[in-house]
Amino acid sequence: MSDTDPLTEVLPTRWQSRYRPRAGIVRLRDSWAAIAQIVIAAAGAYGIAHLLFGHQTPLLAVTVTISSLGLARDARPSKVLQTVAGMLTGIAISEIALLFLRPGWWQLAVVLAVTLVIARFMSPSPGFPIAAGIQTAIAFMLPLGEFTGMRILDGAVGGVMALLVTALLPRNPIKAILRDAHVVFADVDRTMSRVSQGLRRGDRLRAERGLQKARELEGSLASWETSLESGRAISSMSPFLRSRRQQLARLARIMSAMDLVTRNLRLVARRAHYAVEDGQPRPVLARLIGDVQRSVALVSECLTDPSAETAAQDEVRRIARTLDPALLLPGAGLGDQNVVVSLRPLVVDLLVAAGEPRDDAAHELPRI
């Protein structure tokens, strides 16, 4: 007879890290515009350096263009400019070094160390010295150009082309922003569902899971904020995204309010977790959280449909007017009433997300 405990017995499992074509298709769908932008910019940089300036192998023009744009979601012109500046710094240091040194392994080590030190001193961004170091290494190992500064000119051509493409052929930021926004709303919905279940059943483990999910909201919100900031920065530079500025401003208002909603939701989840420590079900609180959860779904519709704001405001306003802990939970303990109190600022922030001015939203709450 085996002495192995069946609860701790090691079971064989299949390796699950196989390639998933669907995930690859999703990545391609989300990146096709960036790929087209990079290809057009790189080809344009090569053509200008080769045909206009007569450079036979304008490698740096192409590499600076590709590296400056990249496939990252944050394609703000300031980020592109920062990367271009780092690369040109590396090329310039390499050009100066080649006036005194011949290419070699120890010479490369010295020049690379000098580049990283100078670039790190120049910028707080960790990507800046890396961009400079890569271009230093490439430029230092390439043959000398036909004239002094030719490779700096190549790099400048690539940088200018990257900035021009960012402005004249911008990536549409709306899809990425909405995708990240829907992720946040879905995460908030799941969090509220766990908190509501914990209160309905008096289940401390479910309430704890809701608290854990509330603490994880920061990551998805940061992604939404990054894509929104990138979109607003690109729209301020590109004349082709001028018509999107009003929509981006409305999405920024929703994002700012939802940031506060997620912060308050962490407090709600924490107080709900404390409230169910006695294991007693709390159907009234569970129903209240469920009502707020459904109002969050209405606010999410405002992302793509501004006309949905009226219905969302009406529903959130109705909930706000009920948030008097003494009337909602007569005779309840302080822990239960604290859950209701913590919902009050959250509902105000939801009203703001739905388009109501903050001062008016705050007046919808009953005095306590």
UniProtKB/TrEMBL annotation:
**Chief location of this protein?**
membrane
Which positions fall inside the Integral membrane bound transporter domain? 46-165
Q: Which Pfam families match?
A: FUSC_2 (PF13515)
What membrane topology is annotated for this entry? Multi-pass membrane protein
Give TM segment ranges.
Answer: 32-53, 80-100, 105-122, 152-169
Which compartments is it annotated to reside in? Membrane
Alphabetized UniProt keyword annotations? Membrane, Transmembrane, Transmembrane helix
Tell me what this protein is called: Uncharacterized membrane protein YgaE (UPF0421/DUF939 family)
